[in-house]
Amino acid sequence: MDHFQHYIGGAFSDGAARFDSVDPATGQVWATMPEARAEDVNAAVDAAEAAFYCAEWASMTATARGKLLYRLADLLADNAARLAELETRDTGKIIRETSAQIAYVAEYYRYYAGLADKIEGAHLPIDKPDMDVWLRREPIGVVAAVVPWNSQLFLSAVKIGPALAAGCTMVVKASEEGPAPMLEFARIFDQAGFPPGVLNVITGFGPECGSVLTRHPKIDHVAFTGGPETARHVVRNSAENLASTSLELGGKSPFIVFEDADIESAVNAQISGIFAASGQSCVAGSRLVVSNKIKSAFLARLKEKAQVIAIGAPDDMATEVGPLCTKRQCETAQDLVDASVAVGAELVVGGQALDREGFYFPPTILDCSNAPDAPCLTNEFFGPVLSVTGFDTEAEALAIANDTAFGLASGVFTKDLTRAHRMIRGIRAGIVWVNTYRAVSPIAPFGGHGLSGHGREGGMQAALDYTKVKAVWLRT
Ligand code: NAD
Fold this sequence. Notes:
This protein is of the alpha/beta class. It contains 15 helices and 21 strands.
């Protein structure tokens, strides 16, 4: 059985306890993981605090920090195959997605490597001739990053990259579901040459390890990605020390298709928009809002495509939809589909968990045109389930799109650019993709509002968010 370890203060350790990790494709235990209890969390935070004040890190130039991040990016690219393999094994995410994602994870580190020495302060032209006043941008301090199991290498990169570029130190808590890629990442990080303790990687269960970490008095900032309910715990925990937070939470993103859209392109974008990562993605385009003028034709084409999606073993390059990460995830998807059908949603395709080993749920489409109260329209599924609503007018499309407590992503498909601009202005979400879906870049900020959280990852702003400003007054 594979054996993974924590990374604390530049050393590897087994953790106060251990737990088993299950392969979602088989339902069988395949590896043993360290489980952080309070003593491990405290050791990791102490190591991060010591590293923050150690001369080697505190006086390292920004350019030198950038060079270390470049080295890390190169090491990740060299080890891409192993990392992708482990993420697939431990979370069930298909190998073609984990392999592609590792390539852009390395790009995010390169982007923040380049930004490290471009985080600038400012000189203030105050109205006093004998005073020189300027702002220094200093690292915010010791950061706790808590990540979910889906896309952990990516969701940690958008925290580790800017935080280390800014000069912070960190404790990253990998999800207890599928921590293997993060623990392997720590082995690779160790070779990049950062001073010990600058980054510490632990894993363990939310209510114990996550809680102790996020309420730790030495933590200055908590960067959290996960569900809104967990976020409430995290905010309450961090409030004890008044630590700042950034929250990247869930979504129920509308995918709006007007009658003049390029139908084939919209169908393809909708298929990958909802079924990529088996729907376990915060930006999944999980609510199709489609013009009634094309609804039947559009659904017919979607059904055709959904029916031929290759469902299979996640480590097979031919597989397009793999298992869900956990048995619980599969059961939740089934419950939500059943509850939606019970209130009038019509099954277009799929809808029944597969009767085979592992946690497989097929691509599913539910037409909710006659079921406005179907829970699938409001609850985040985190499964391959698309809910559909038709509309007659642009105003109706916008109202349906905004009828959600989330506000993360959205898609608009139309050839009418003036209409596209009206939709861009009207949609309440952190991201609007027009005639495309799921496009990402390290340069573009990513995040939402409402139940989707606050703060942005990606871009220069994310690096600035890991700094605090010091005003300096010098009488001359
Ligand atoms: P989750 O909220 O259950 O867990 C996320 C992390 O929080 C895990 O590491 C978990 O151990 C930890 N945690 C749990 N309880 C805790 C507590 N009391 N204190 C501190 N930490 C605690 O989420 P999940 O099921 O692993 O992931 C799915 C969720 O993540 C979905 O809602 C999804 O939309 C969201 N997500 C958001 C983004 C984004 O960028 N906006 C990206 C991916 C996933």
